[in-house]
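Design request, tokens follow.
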């Protein structure tokens, strides 16, 4: 029997190979997941930054359009007092490199090189260069946020308005962007960890499966066949020796049996007629079986047609679900358009409020109307956000439905494959039934021929006696061969035993 140490070594090598393979595949998958996560995080951050920049552009455009109809003094006062949000304000620099308007009066009139952020960077000079080249610009810097203990990241957008060589600027803090990006990064890390856990579990299960399969195949195809071969040789040698002894006595009895066989052959001829009659009934049954098998083929082919119809209907459903997803995306675009209109309306209301404020007592009523319009625009923007959330849920549901439909499609395809295999099996049965019918017909014909052959057997029996004498000589030769075969089996058993002992000693030394 095969030594257990050798089996352990074979299983260990296979397990090590599979572990390396699974580790490589896991590394590739996790690396791809990390890369996708970094790309996703970068795109998400860029989207948030773009939204911030677009808001600043809209605000600067609103202030620029408002000041076009004012004198320079009125425009300065308007920009100095303009506010939005909890900490939003505007400032103005000129193309000469000086601060014209600022929320801090002490900075007005100063050179831009004197205005520096927490990292001592003259960020306004950089913004001025961008506006000179492209008419607008955007910079990021560190600035002390009111109420904060340390400087925080801030982004400012500026645009040249031409009049008085002004560049109108506003800025927005980016702390909420950093928080959102950090939240998204934590979510990505959770997804990566989930992926790692799944691959570790798959690796463990794969290793257990490989060990079990290796043990099974080693026992079945190596250990058991080798032991069986030795046992078979020994048994065959013993049986062969018994057969030789039996043949010796059989040769003595063969001569007396010839006369008995002759009498039996006469009875055989009469029995052959009865067998021929029964064989005809078997032939009829085989023909009925063939007919029923063909009917079964027709039924299964009909089933295949129904399976194909279900598969086609399922494909139509998937296409309709995908179309629904596209329509949901189109609705999202429409809601984005509505949201932009609401944002513009809010800015217009803001400008109107600013105009009303500058108009004094005469613009109070108009200011109230502008305030209500602005609130209405805010309400519309909140509603569109809620609708966008619902649409996102619909798109997610559509995606899940597509996945479920694809699973159904896979199940239908498997059903069709099983049906096709069933048809193939039934075709095989039909062929076998057809062959059986032909075989039965041949049997009937053969039985008729056996009557004629019986007479020939009687002639052959006379020749058996002569062959008996020759068989006696061959029995002696067979006995000699049987003895040699038995000796060979014993030598093979010793070789296997020595091999197992050698493997055991090597396993102990290892």
């Amino acid at each position: 029997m095969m030594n257990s140490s050798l089996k352990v070594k074979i299983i260990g090598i296979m397990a090590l190979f599979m572990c390396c393979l699974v580790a490589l595949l896991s590394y590739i998958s996790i690396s791809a997941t990390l890369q996708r996560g970094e790309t996703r995080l970068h795109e998400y951050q860029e989207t948030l930054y773009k939204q911030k920049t677009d808001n600043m552009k809209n605000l600067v455009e609103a202030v620029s359009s408002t000041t076009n109809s004012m004198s320079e003094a009125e425009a300065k006062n308007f920009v100095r007092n303009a506010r939005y949000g909890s900490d939003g304000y505007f400032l103005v620099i000129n193309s000469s490199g000086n601060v014209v308007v600022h929320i801090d009066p002490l900075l007005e009139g100063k050179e831009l090189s004197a205005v520096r952020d927490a990292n001592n960077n003259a960020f306004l000079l950089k913004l001025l260069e961008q506006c000179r080249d492209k008419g607008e610009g955007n910079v990021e810097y560190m600035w002390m946020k009111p109420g904060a203990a340390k400087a925080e990241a801030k982004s400012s957008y500026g645009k040249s308005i031409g009049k008085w060589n002004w560049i109108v600027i506003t800025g927005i803090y980016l702390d909420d962007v950093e928080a959102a990006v950090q939240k998204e990064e934590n979510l990505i890390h959770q997804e990566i960890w989930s992926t790692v856990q799944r691959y570790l579990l798959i690796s463990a299960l794969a290793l257990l499966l490989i060990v079990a399969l290796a043990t099974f195949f080693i026992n079945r195809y190596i250990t058991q066949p080798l032991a069986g071969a030795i046992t078979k040789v020994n048994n065959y040698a013993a049986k062969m020796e018994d057969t030789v002894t039996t043949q010796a006595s059989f040769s003595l009895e063969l001569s007396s049996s010839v006369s008995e066989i002759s009498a039996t052959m006469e009875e055989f001829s009469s029995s052959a007629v009865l067998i021929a009659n029964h064989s005809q009934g078997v032939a009829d049954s085989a023909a009925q079986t063939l007919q029923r098998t063909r009917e079964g083929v027709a039924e299964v082919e009909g089933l295949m047609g129904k399976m194909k119809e279900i598969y086609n209907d399922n494909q139509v459903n998937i296409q309709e679900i995908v179309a629904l997803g596209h329509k949901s995306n189109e609705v999202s675009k429409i809601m984005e358009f509505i949201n932009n209109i609401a944002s513009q309306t809010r800015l217009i209301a803001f400008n109107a409020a600013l105009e009303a404020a500058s108009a004094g007592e005469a613009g109070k009523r108009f200011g109230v109307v502008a305030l209500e319009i602005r609130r209405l625009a805010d309400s519309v923007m909140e509603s569109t956000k809620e609708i966008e959330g619902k649409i996102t849920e619909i798109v997610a549901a559509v995606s899940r439905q597509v996945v479920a439909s694809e699973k159904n499609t896979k199940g239908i395809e498997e059903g069709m494959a099983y049906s096709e295999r069933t048809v193939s099996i039934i075709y095989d049965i039909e062929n076998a039934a057809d062959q059986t019918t032909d075989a039965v017909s041949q049997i009937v014909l053969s039985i008729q021929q056996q009557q004629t052959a019986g007479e020939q057997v009687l002639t052959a029996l006379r020749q058996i006696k002569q062959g008996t004498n020759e068989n006696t000589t061959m029995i002696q030769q067979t006995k000699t061969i049987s003895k040699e075969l038995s000796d060979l089996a014993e030598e093979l058993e010793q070789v296997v035993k020595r091999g197992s002992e050698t493997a055991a000693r090597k396993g102990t030394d290892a």
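Comment from the thread starter after seeing the answer: thanks! The mean pLDDT is 77.
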